[in-house]
Amino acid sequence: MISPSIKSQFEAIVGKENIMDSPAQRLVYSYDATPNIQAMPDLIVAPRSTEEVVKIVNVCQKGKIPIVPRGSGSNLCAGTVPIAGGVVLLFKHMNRIIEVDEQNLTVTVQPGVITQDLIETVEQKGLFYPPDPSSMKISTIGGNINENSGGLRGLKYGVTADYVMGLEAVLANGEVIRTGGKLAKDVAGYNLTQLLVGSEGTLAIITEATLKLIPKPESKQTMLALYENIDAAAQSVSNIIAAQIIPATLEFLDQPTLQAVEDFAQIGLPTDVEAVLLIEQDGDSQVVERDMRKMATLCTASGAISVQVAATLEEAEALTTARRAALSALARLKPTTILEDATVPRSEIANMVKAINEIADRHQVKICTFGHAGDGNLHPTCPTDARDLEEMERVEAAFADIFERAIQLGGTITGEHGVGMVKAPYLQWKVGATGIAVMKGIKQSLDPQHILNPGKIFTEDARKRLVVSS
Amino acid sequence: MISPSIKSQFEAIVGKENIMDSPAQRLVYSYDATPNIQAMPDLIVAPRSTEEVVKIVNVCQKGKIPIVPRGSGSNLCAGTVPIAGGVVLLFKHMNRIIEVDEQNLTVTVQPGVITQDLIETVEQKGLFYPPDPSSMKISTIGGNINENSGGLRGLKYGVTADYVMGLEAVLANGEVIRTGGKLAKDVAGYNLTQLLVGSEGTLAIITEATLKLIPKPESKQTMLALYENIDAAAQSVSNIIAAQIIPATLEFLDQPTLQAVEDFAQIGLPTDVEAVLLIEQDGDSQVVERDMRKMATLCTASGAISVQVAATLEEAEALTTARRAALSALARLKPTTILEDATVPRSEIANMVKAINEIADRHQVKICTFGHAGDGNLHPTCPTDARDLEEMERVEAAFADIFERAIQLGGTITGEHGVGMVKAPYLQWKVGATGIAVMKGIKQSLDPQHILNPGKIFTEDARKRLVVSS
């Protein structure tokens, strides 16, 4: 699809050393962290500046060549699978932290910065960037912005969108826009910043971002509450929120997840209980003490059989690190791991967990559930085998039922993973035909040739899950 | 413009009693809180339900009749002036607080709810809705959402946009969309919720909103720091933020504003100083105590000649109420009051205040300045007389210079008042021709006939300020 003449144009822009198109190299960028979906790009380009991105886009728009911006490919919705071929745009050179502005509490970054590097850099200055997706050790900020990534601290601190103050982005027509700025308030026209956040690379290519920082909380405590039944854990979540305590983290893990995580991390997690809640509070030390005490009492009153506060920072860190490893741990069980993130109003957590288990029974599939209980954002996860087509059909049917139930409970098909290809068939369930028509209109106005990450968010193939091979 | 047959269609939808079209009634809705801009609507309609809004829109789209949704008309950008005639849509019947959900910490409202009523209702349940525009006693939530209103608590708590979780809205084609929900996380497609917030009624008619609530802070303290020069006040703002304290409120008033407010409110404000900062902190009582102590020290070190903490809640309330009355107070000085809200990164507050004073001197106009210093959101205000055309030209030129300087400092033409008609000529200065093209593309895709609040945000008449008479 990409002619030698087009290739030489790319080479003239970024240099030969920043272009890859051998079969082996193309294979590497044919998939992301999403199981079972793969498609070969024609070429991989790594620009070194916004100007180079502009030039690349200009070549692509003339040739109607698809462009797929890609960070580390850690997304779980096949958001970076180059389903229509074309160019994968890598940001490995555009990975500078341009400025930490301590007066305005902002940080300005290029999209290729690794999330954890950003977090550590600002923490050295006593500042705090809260969004902490489980993949933060490898994920990029550009990817986080495109997917509007969440994380374990979302309950109290919100998601990536809540920290994006301004963007520089290259449009499909090769023009550059700058939105927002180091501004606590800005109502100059439509909110293009928030339109681009979470748009999965389908509306523009983000080349720079100014992010909001907050003061680093002075202290943090972590505790683990153990339950012999899942309802009691869910009830604890509701009771904590209803008591108007907003903990930094309020995570749920069921027994099968606990078992997998303990086998993987071996930090002495209990594996003989039905569920645990991992609870963190941060802030002023006295407030943290008070909230932890109150939450321990509420958990016990809701049926926790044990509540243990981590004695040391290391112990606390081990617990959250283990939680972040849940997907990796579950991925060891079977050749294929399907992880979803149906999300419901937090008051419906108990109903949703119950529904997931019933649905798993009905379709005779194993589903482990963990997730951000405080956000109502659950990750039902199915260890399976893509080669077993009969089982895959049952898995498919089970997840469709899970999405349907989430919608019935006032929820959504995806809380933080994005639509990409895997949720596209279900998007209409959440936003309706009218919502999709509005989104398509916006897409059409910004990218009339559909060169920006085509085949994502929208699909002709509603409801049925897509499985694609190269 | 509206024929008897169209009028009878409206009557059939909402009943005769919910239609107004006498000259006196039309005159009432020919202007809003913005000085010097007026245009007569053809008809005023007050629907009682979303279904009635749909029917009204269907009549309007067939007849290409402009629709201007209007809350209380307290906006300051001529956002609700029916510049192209047509229908003004009133929400006086759609003013119910539908549900306060204590489990999910949300409130669901119709657009006609008065902001202060909402705030008081949720506070009775120990919950908190932070956005508090100065007009909150009369403004509606629908208006707040359409303008993305700020307020005194914006520094710590953000603006209206930060609290809108979901919307129901009627599109220009008469279809109804529902965005978001009671969901802490939702990434199902583009963020239409945040696209509609602040879109000033130009993209859709908001008919219901689900808003985020937070626990009500347990305590609050208020203090006043007095300054003999403006730089010292601005320096205090920078030092407080750089010390990583985020107060709930950090307001600036210069001497002329202080004088006007004291004449109006008579609560014993000092009028012989150059500037004051009104500072509030809320939260856990010990944290509040600590922050207030630290901020008092920082203010003194930056040159405050006096720092006084309000002794009682009543005294504190009197101070913030006086601040909220600043516009009303200044409006008494001269027949016309032009109030703007140029906004800069908070580190540039001192430079911006200095620039405003220099610009006022250069154009020989009186400009009083107050505003949300912690947000970098200033309200330079000019008491003038619209009948004095020569002076109005100088006022015009001065504000153009102020916007230009704000942009140079990394700021924006409007922090919280919106673009409407009065900032439309300057929008390109902030977002560029490309930004405007993108916004126009979105507008075109959602409202191809331009029936929704036409003549707002976009203008043919760039840079020159519009002054229109009926």
From TrEMBL, chains A, B:
Gene3D superfamilies in UniProt: 3.30.465.10, 3.30.70.2740, Vanillyl-alcohol Oxidase, Chain A, domain 4
Cofactor: FAD
Record carries keyword Metal-binding: no
Keywords for this protein: FAD, Flavoprotein, Oxidoreductase
Molecular functions (GO terms): (S)-2-hydroxy-acid oxidase activity; FAD binding
Domain of life: Bacteria
Domain FAD-binding PCMH-type as annotated: residue spans: 37-216
Gene Ontology terms: cellular component: glycolate oxidase complex
Family: Belongs to the FAD-binding oxidoreductase/transferase type 4 family.
Family annotation (PANTHER family): GLYCOLATE OXIDASE SUBUNIT GLCD (PTHR42934)
UniProt-recorded name of the protein: FAD-binding protein
